[in-house]
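cron nightly-structures :: item 1 of 1
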Amino acid sequence: MVLTLYQIVWDLTMIHYPKRILIVEDNKADVRMLKDVLESQGYETLQTGDGLEAINLALAHLPDLILMDIQLPELSGLEVTRRLRCDDRSRHIPIVAVTAFAMGCHRREALDSGCNAYISKPISIVGFLSTVESFLPRLLR
């Protein structure tokens, strides 16, 4: 396998910088819990409970991962996901739906909207971190 200079520089950059995760959640207790768990593992976080602000933050900061609540006021997490998938700057960012909706139809709707994975609340910390790490390199977060 031959690596391009771009790939080598990208890989080296990703090893040495903390991964940034955008938490899109309107429940303050859930935000605090997700933030605390992620930051204890060395991740940087950004947070918002607003769909439009989530789009702006994602485009401004290009996080390595987005955790998306589905039921947000005004603009749903599914609509935010669809809009991010339509923008070349953000379509590559993995999005994980984290929601209290636990029925199979909700899972399918989230995945059809562009989410890469689905976690139902209440979350298992071990399962949650396993899902996060499946989307982010494990090297020197």
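cron nightly-structures :: done
The beta strands are 20-24, 44-48, 65-68, 95-99, 117-120.
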